[in-house]
Automatic annotation (TrEMBL):
<dbReference type="InterPro" id="IPR000415">
    <property type="entry name" value="Nitroreductase-like"/>
</dbReference>
<dbReference type="GO" id="GO:0016491">
    <property type="term" value="F:oxidoreductase activity"/>
</dbReference>
<dbReference type="InterPro" id="IPR029479">
    <property type="entry name" value="Nitroreductase"/>
</dbReference>
<protein>
    <recommendedName>
        <fullName>Nitroreductase domain-containing protein</fullName>
    </recommendedName>
</protein>
<feature type="domain" description="Nitroreductase">
    <location>
        <begin position="251"/>
        <end position="321"/>
    </location>
</feature>
<dbReference type="Pfam" id="PF00881">
    <property type="entry name" value="Nitroreductase"/>
</dbReference>
């Protein structure tokens, strides 16, 4: 029974696991077929399984935020909608400017080195081509042909999400050589471009930046030093202004919930999470770092962009730059073991 107010005290049940998705594996070359009825029945049986082992407790005392658990109940998706089909989009490569922009690291090395920066140096300058390359790998549809637009999630890792891209990026560019400081916008689903231009500030430029690859739907909204602004809207955290660039992830919101259901609410955050992980790996692959920023003022972000309703909503913040290591903090290998330490 959920409380109807915030409760403090021992409540170990709040640390229970919440499985959000099932991953289905198919033999390469086979045609994927899904029996949603059988799958739903199997998932319902999970609660009765006997789990091996016991998770360590995270805290002796807890704060039960009732609104969080009530929201979880409201946004659950219990069964597939009638007519749901399992569709596998054709796989597409992500576009690449030059492999020479990356350090000579294997995928395993990049993944094992991935860390969240706790501070940025406020000095490092990123090359323009490196910036463009990172954003190219943030595109959901990969390399598109003439007349095609970004939107369907066909490139890795975005293709794990079975819906067209709903999340865009408002970028605060601080230190990118050959690119003026200012506010930029990456349109990850070009079907939304007209709506974005309609609801955002009328004095934005919507200009293609110099040297921008043809397949990258990136626009400059305004020039200017946005370091203080980026810090302020990210709860006054300096890490948002001390990197090469920071960003707010902007999702098409109200229409998505109306068209598909409230269960899409957490899934929009899944999409921001996948986008954030791509940025983490891209940053480490070029020799710098990144971190997600969970504290931000969404109303202030909306004011900056000119958003006045819930058609689009700020959902998460992120920053990329050269990290400053805190020597007071011990760092251990994420995956310890003979011959595999990062």
């Amino acid at each position: 029974m959920l409380p109807d107010k915030v409760v403090r005290g021992k409540a170990p049940w709040v640390e229970r696991q919440h499985p959000d998705c099932a991953v289905l594996l198919f033999r390469a070359g086979s045609k994927p077929e899904i029996d949603y009825g059988r799958m739903s029945e199997a998932l319902r049986l999970f609660d009765g399984l006997e789990w091996v082992g016991k998770a360590n407790g995270l805290s002796k005392d807890h704060v039960v935020w009732d609104v969080i658990y009530r929201t979880v109940e409201q946004v659950q998706r219990h069964n597939p909608a009638s007519g749901d089909q399992f569709i596998v989009n054709p796989w597409r490569m992500s576009p690449a400017l030059s492999e020479g922009l990356y350090k000579e690291l294997t995928v395993q090395e990049v993944v094992r080195r991935r860390r969240s920066a706790v501070d940025m140096d406020g000095v490092h300058v990123m090359g323009r081509d490196t910036f463009y390359q990172m954003l190219l790998h943030c595109l959901p549809s990969g390399e598109v042909g003439p007349g095609e637009r970004q939107g369907p999630q066909s490139a890795l890792p975005f293709r794990v999400l079975p819906w067209d891209a709903e999340v865009h990026a408002a970028l605060f560019v601080h230190r990118v050589s050959g690119l003026p400081k200012g506010l930029y916008f990456l349109v990850r689903n070009e079907e939304h471009l007209d709506a974005l231009r309609r609801v955002m500030r009328g004095d934005f430029e919507w200009m293609r930046p110099e040297g921008c690859p043809d397949g990258l739907p990136l626009y400059r909204l305004m020039k200017g030093d946005c370091q203080r602004l980026a810090m302020q809207i990210s709860c006054f955290q300096e890490i948002a202004s001390h990197g090469c660039f920071s960003l707010g992830m902007i999702a098409r919101f109200e229409a998505v919930l109306q068209e598909k259901g409230e269960w899409m609410y957490p899934r929009l955050f899944w999409e921001t999470g996948v986008l954030g992980q791509v940025l983490y790996l891209e940053a480490h692959a070029v020799g710098i770092s990144a971190t997600g920023i969970g504290c931000y003022f969404d109303d202030a972000v909306h004011e900056v962009l000119g958003l006045k309703d819930l058609e689009f909503q700020s959902l998460y913040h992120f920053t990329v730059g050269a990290p400053v290591l805190d020597k007071r903090i011990m760092s251990l290998p994420a995956y310890p073991g003979p011959g595999i330490d990062a």
